[in-house]
Description:
This protein is an alpha/beta fold. It has helices spanning about 45-55, 75-85, 100-110, 125-140, 155-170, 190-195, 205-210, 235-250, 250-280, 290-320; strands at about 30-35, 60-70, 90-95, 115-120, 145-150, 180-185, 215-220, 330-335. It is built from 10 helices and 8 strands. The longest helix is centred in the C-terminal third of the chain and has 34 residues, at about 290-320. Uridine-5'-diphosphate binds near residues 35 and 37. It comes from Streptomyces pseudovenezuelae.
Amino acid sequence: xxxTASPPAHAPAPVALAAVxxxxxxxxxxxxxxxxxxxxxxxxxxxxxxxAALGSRxxxxxxxxxxxxxxxxxxxxxxxxxxxxxxxxxVVDFARNFGHQIAITAGLDLAAGDAVIVMDTDLQDPPxxxxxxxxxxxxxxxxxxxxxxxxxxTAFKRATAHLYYRLLRSxxxxxxxxxxxxxxxxxxxxxxxxxxxxxxxxxxxxxxxSMGYAQTEVxxxxxxxxxxxxxxxxxxxxxxxxxxxTSFSTAPLKxxxxxxxxxxxxxxxxxxxxxxxxxxxxxxxxxxxxxxMCVVLFLGGTQMLSLGVIGTYIGRIYxxxxxxxxxxxREVIGGPDSDD
Length: 340
Ligand code: UDP
Ligand code: MG
């Protein structure tokens, strides 16, 4: 406090203090969180396009936090080069590949901006659109989701994503916005709160949606990947989908109970049929082997499926209970205070 004598209790708030640092004079710092995994063919083009877009907003300060998520190609060397040329660039080098969601988390841990933008580094999220997110933030939004109006991915990816988001919405209480990935802007206070969520199997877009605050959307057309292939093969996509579902819903567990009732009902029909045959048509024996096999396999299948669902939740409990660090950093390169 700059004041020496404290004002009497009934005095109005010291409005004059605000004049010491007028809001308009303080430039906003916008941080970009940029996960990179084997993007050597596209990262230079991405950076150039982003820098060009940022050039159109001289009234803002920017900070670019690239997170190298254990790339096995030349991505790190290229990122180091970018950090040397530009003090606004910071590179967090992971000890290994920890996955996209964790990379985003590390970036958020380091980003210092008044607003933080998370976007992919394959030019699927156009840098120009990120400035539209900034406009929405300046207009008062605390979370700005970039919603995919159209996307250029394969028909399979589009169809599965479309189905998944609708399924997720219908089975959770969280209002997860449709057709949004992780491309979004978070106000400083949202980013600070988000950092308190330290769960391992994380689904960042779901967590953000569950937080509340003033949320809004900006629609954009998602481009094709500039270079290279998707780093989200089916296996990783499926894992993210399971993480999303199990992070926000116990619907799969409840489904087991429903499945149990359905199977019981079916077996009741079978029992009634067998009894009816015995009493009314004793000359016909209910065919044995095929029926038995079907029942055994059906029951075996449903039971294993149910165990799998329970196992998924137990697996989450297990990894959370271990409480291991979310990620390990080899080094942080660049930034305004670095000596490099
Ligand atoms: N990514 C990452 N770690 C991974 C996989 C992906 O940091 O294990 C990054 C990747 O470099 C890209 C973003 O996450 O910037 C999104 O990945 P990708 O474009 O492959 O996913 P898609 O757009 O196909 O869903
Ligand atoms: Mg992509």
